[in-house]
Amino acid sequence: MQHLMAGRILLVTGGTQGLGLAIARAAAREGAAGIAIVGRSAEKAERALVEIHEAALWSDDGPANAIAVVADLAVPGEAERAVAETVERFGRIDSLVNAAALPTRGSLTDTTRELLGEHLAVNLVAPFMTMQGAVADMQRRGAPGTIVNIITISSHGGQPYLAPYVASKAGLAGLTKNAAFAHRFDRIRINGLNIGWTATPGENATQQKFHGAEDGWLEQASAGMPMGKLGQPDEIADAVVFLLSDRSGVVTGSIIDWDQTVVGAYE
Predict the structure, then answer these.
(1) Nearest CA to 44 among 100, 88, 95, 84?
(2) CA-CA 20 to 30 A from 243: which of 8, 91, 173, 176?
(3) Which DSSP letter does residue 122 get?
(4) C-alpha to C-alpha distance for 205 and 221, rounded to whole angstroms
(5) CA pair distance 193, 25, nearest whole angstrom
């Protein structure tokens, strides 16, 4: 890939760590003119901005302008503020990635209304509102744009302990297609990635907190996977940047299973 994001302004939710940060770094390497990352921790945001600026040094398009919006997307109005601050700082939004997600566990029988509400707020309502704001900016300018939503392979059904997560992410998959259809003649392309099990620091914390994972769990889990490894953030980030770029052509409304599990196949 080369110069795929040249001159573009990108907003990435969940961009202060894990996959979101990997996407921001990839966009910087591909020449993005401006990148806004959204996360809850000011400390993580500062470290992320350093990584993004370092990644931009590999681009021939010059260093990317990067800013952080410290926001809790579970709080009403914060997603809208992230969009507004991005437009205020850079004048526009060309591309949006919704990578922020709440991964806490819960089954159908033990999930409280409060936990379900938290998942819906972060995993569905916040993407709805960032998409709404970004599309409104694109329409106002009469300009094309691209959006990629990070969903999950579990949106097909998932494990019993992921009930609220699956409900919210399946909703995001439906929203992705709905919005793509609604805005195809605005030349706004909207796609999603159903990512599988991915090796991130956040996943490490999740495995330890909810599943009692011990040191070495990643190596053990990787050995049991068809490709000998879990999904890699940098590889997924390259796919996202491709979908955000003009090189992905006319593709819109696609939900791509980015995993080594083949949904619907069995032995």
Answers:
(1) 100
(2) 91
(3) I
(4) 15
(5) 18
What's the one-letter identity of residue 102? L
Residues 81-120 pLDDT 10s: 999 999 999 999 999 999 999 989 999 999 999 999 999 9
- Burial of residue 16 (CB within 10 Å: 0-12, 13-18, 19+) is buried
Task: Report the length, in residues, of the chain.
Answer: 267
DSSP 232-244: -HHHHHHHHHHHH
Structure confidence by residue, pLDDT tens digits, 201-235: 766 677 666 777 767 777 777 877 787 888 889 99
User: Is 223 exposed, middle or buried (CB count within 10 Å of its CB: 0-12, 13-18, 19+)?
Assistant: exposed
Give, in degrees to the nearest 5, the angle at Cα 193 between 164 and 142: 110
Say which residue the tokens 């929203």 belong to. Answer: 175
For residues 256 and 15, is the Cβ–Cβ distance under 8 A?
A: no
Rounded Cα gap, residues 48 and 126, in angstroms: 21
Q: What is the mean pLDDT of the segment spanning 68-78?
A: 97
Task: For residue 229, give the amino acid letter.
Answer: K
User: β-strands 188-195, 145-150: how paired?
Assistant: parallel
Q: How far apart are CA 33 and CA 48, in angstroms?
A: 17
Q: C-alpha distances in angstroms, 202 versus 21, 100, 104, 207?
A: 12, 11, 11, 9
pLDDT digits (tens, 9 = 90+) for 6-58: 999 999 999 999 999 999 999 999 999 999 999 999 999 999 999 999 887 75
- 13 C-beta neighbours (distance < 10 Å), count: 29
Closest CA to 151 of 121, 126, 173: 173
